[in-house]
Structures are given as structure tokens and as C-alpha cells.
Specification:
single chain; about 110 residues; alpha/beta; 3-stranded parallel beta sheet; 3 helices; 3 strands; about 20% strand
Length: about 110
């Protein structure tokens, strides 16, 4: 894999203390792989996850909404968040390759 993707309902100060994404990140870093974590909410202390190997945290819910609406629209919200994150990842690949034009999405 060139990129490791993980997710959690809430990424916050507790994430480095035993939540699943923390272990995923530790293992990915042993292999030298970048890690993106998707989260239903990004809470207090979320930046602490960078110390354990999560390179970026992406919120799944783009605007305030009721939990029931977020659950009903989960597939759509996750797909949108993944597309946004991967477009940024591809942009980074473009810069790293010193390419003038980013790759086009399929």
C-alpha cells in the first residue's frame, strides 16, 4: 500500500491511548507509510495523534447536523470525505513529483 486509511467515530486526545487508529498508525509507520484518519468528529487534543503516526485527520461531517441525519447520510458523507482527502493526497503527489499539473480523477 502507498497510503493507509483508518477511521474512528471521534479522533481526540484519547485516540493515542489505545483506540484502533493508533495501532494502525504505529504499524503503518514501521513500514514507512503515510496515514490518514477519517473521523465523525474531531475533538479536543486531536493534534496529539500526529505524535503516534497519523499524518492527517479528515472530518467526515462537513457541516453541523443532527446525529440521525449524519447516520442516514453516512455513505454519502464518507464518500465525499474520502474524495476530498484523496484529491489533496494527489495534489501532494503532484508537488512531490514537481509536476505542473495534478493527475485527473477517473
Amino acid at each position: 500500500a502507498d497510503l493507509v486509511i483508518t477511521a474512528e467515530g471521534a479522533v481526540d486526545y484519547q485516540t493515542p491511548r489505545g483506540k484502533g487508529p493508533a495501532e494502525v498508525a504505529r504499524r503503518a509507520k514501521r513500514c514507512g507509510k503515510p496515514v490518514i484518519a477519517f473521523a465523525g468528529s474531531i475533538g479536543e487534543g486531536a493534534t496529539s495523534v500526529h505524535d503516534i503516526g497519523i499524518d492527517a485527520v479528515v472530518g467526515i461531517i462537513p457541516v453541523p447536523m443532527e446525529l440521525v441525519d449524519a447516520v442516514d447520510r453516512a455513505a454519502e458523507l464518507v464518500a465525499d470525505a474520502v474524495e476530498r482527502a484523496l484529491r489533496l493526497f494527489l495534489l501532494g503527489v503532484c508537488f512531490a513529483a514537481d509536476n505542473a499539473e495534478p493527475p485527473r480523477a477517473a
